[in-house]
Amino acid sequence: MSTNRTTILKNITSLVSIQIANYLLPVISVPVIWRVIGADKFGVINYATAIAGYFVLIVNYGFDLTATRKVAQNKNDTKVITELFSTVLWCKVLLFLVTLVLFLCCFAVVPFFVAEWKAMIFSYIFVISWIITPNWLYQGMQELHRVAVFNVVMKLLFTVAVLLAVRHEDDYFYHPLIFSAAQIAVGYYSFRYAIGRYKIKIIKLPFQKILRTLKDEYQVFFSTVVINVYTTANMVLLGALTNNAQVGYYAAAIKIVQIAQAVITVPLSNSFFPYVGAAFASGRDEGVQAAQKVLPIVTIVGFIAFTGMVVLGPWALRLFYGESITLSIPIFLILSVTPLLIVISNVYAIQVMLNLIMDKAFLRITTAGAIVSVVSNLLLIPLIGGTGAAYSLVITEVFIVLACAIYLYAKGINLLTWKYFSARTIMSQILTIFSSLKKTAN
Q: In this predicted model, what pLDDT tens digit does every residue of 192-207 receive, in sequence order?
């Protein structure tokens, strides 16, 4: 029991550490950066980052979900893992070349790229890191702790470097440059360590094999695209319809929300994904029951995070950014419910629908969510700016949760089982999950 409990606690702790490195450490530098460069330039670097995120999305191609699932189901088969590692790598290389062409074409048609070329190029360099970062492998193997310490150290160095480099308003472009460099270093270390740890050899693959893999995984890829559309369209459309300062206030608010999401809800969701996936490998009923047990745990944690943000958020914003952040507080309070909604939809959509290979339904639901997001943004942003973008995100997340729950219920799957929501039952289920992880940890 103690060995299994240690395994999941290591996974959760490692994911928390990585998320702290990705979000909390950079946020330490954000208040200083905000005061130095102001809302306008802060909006520029966040707008550039949001656009670069679409290129990252193409390179990742949903492998963080599909490849993780395959690793969890074949973690003891070295041949399968080796072939999968090479397949994902060559697919990402090909996809990166596609993004490079698209990125260069944007300079001919998007004025922002030309006006802020330094911010855009330095933000785009970040894409390179995702070619070589095999977090999907460590997550499937339940060994993210192997690279967590290095990740935290590099991001700590990034935070120090940014604080030293950005001393004047015109230095704002150093922020994406240093961030990209740090992430590439993390990716390189993770890549080299994975090859040694799992005795992986990079093998040549026929080009047809790469294309076939991309074809087989396209539904999950498009699902991640539309998910990204409804989670980032707010900032992109806000910048297109208003100005950089509005983006800056929205970005300042959502960064604090992302801390709770990244440090609390994401590690739980990602740690339970291999557990639920292994349960589905034993059978549909076993997988559904595992998800029913997980749902109360992540919901309660998400609700605690929501309550804490509502109570402490306005104070934290003023503490971090100063009184000039007042315009971000209403946006923050609206967005504070999103981590709770996201962690619930993760169980329905990622933990259950993807494990049951309901990829087409998942794509339809997320596509509908993207449409809801774009339409609501176009209606609300011209009226109330950043507040409208925040309302749009909440509306979209509620739609996704309800759509997934209704679809699964129509298929005879009801995850909302109240018997698992009592305190005694939840503690019992946590211990049961710890025990069950022996199957996936060994």
A: 999 988 888 899 889 9
Q: Contact at 8 Å (CB) between 327 and 249?
A: yes
Q: What is the C-alpha separation between 194 and 199, in angstroms, rounded?
A: 8
b (16+ CB within 10 A) / e for 2-25: eebeebbebbbbbbbbbbbbbbbb
Provide the pLDDT for residue 1.
42
Nearest to 78 by CA among 179, 198, 217: 198
* Distance in angstroms (rounded) separating the CA atoms of residues 33 and 24: 14
Query: Please, which pLDDT band fits residue 434 given cuts at 50, 70 and 90?
Result: low
**Interatomic CA distance for residues 81 and 194, integer angstroms:** 11
Is 373 within 8 Å of 229 (Cβ atoms)?
yes
Residue 326 in this model has a pLDDT that exceeds 70: yes
The C-alpha atoms of residue 18 and residue 23 are separated, in whole angstroms, by 9
Question: Is the separation of the CB atoms in 251 and 46 below 8 Å?
Answer: yes
Q: Per the structure block, which two tokens stand in for 369?
A: 């969510």
Angle, CA of 345, 234 and 50, to the nearest 5°: 95
Q: Report CA torsion sign: 172, 128, 20, 345.
A: positive
**How many CB atoms lie under 10 A from the CB of residue 197?**
14
Q: How far is Cα 9 from Cα 225, in angstroms, rounded to an integer? A: 31
Q: What is the DSSP string of 210-274?
A: HHHHHHHTHHHHHHHHHHHHHHHHHHHHHHHHS-HHHHHHHHHHHHHHHHHIIIIIHHHHHHHHH
Rounded to 5, what percent of the chain is helix, strand, coil? 90, 0, 10
Q: Using CA atoms, how far apart are residues 228 and 370, in angstroms rounded to an integer?
A: 8
Task: Determine the Cα–Cα distance for residues 421 and 97; give it in Å rounded to an integer.
Answer: 48
Q: What is the DSSP letter of 379?
A: H
Question: How far apart, in whole angstroms, are the C-alpha atoms of residue 266 and residue 259?
Answer: 10
Q: Return the closest-CA partner of residue 408 out of 351, 370, 340.
A: 351
Residues 6+ apart with CB under 8 A from 435: 1, 4
pLDDT at 381: 94
